[in-house]
Amino acid sequence: MSRVQIYDRTKLPKWAQSEFDRLESDLHSAEKKMREMMGTSNEGTEVYLWQGTENFPLPKRSQIRFRCDPARDYPHFDVSIRDGRLRIYGSGCFTIQPQSANSVDLIHEDQK
Question: Does pTM surpass 0.85?
C-alpha cells in the first residue's frame, strides 16, 4: 500500500483537494488583511506570539484590549503606550498587586 504524500494533492479525493484550496485561499486572505493592519517595526507596539516566532508590529498609538472573560466584552483592560509610558484603562475599578520587582497583577473589581 502506497502512502499519500501531503504535498501531492492530486492523489487526494477531489473534496479534500477543494478543502485544501479553500483553506489556502483563506490563509492568503487573512495574511493580506494582517499585512494591511500592521505598522512598522519602529513604532513600539508589537504582538509577541511566542519565543521563536516573528513579532507583528501594530500601527502607531494602537490600543490592545484584554478581556477578563473571553465570552463577554466586560470586564476588560485596554493597554497602550502614551508618551513613552504604559497606559492601562480598566472598564471599572481595579487593584494593582505587585508580584516581584518587575511584575504586577491587575485584578478587576468583578474578579475579587
Answer: no
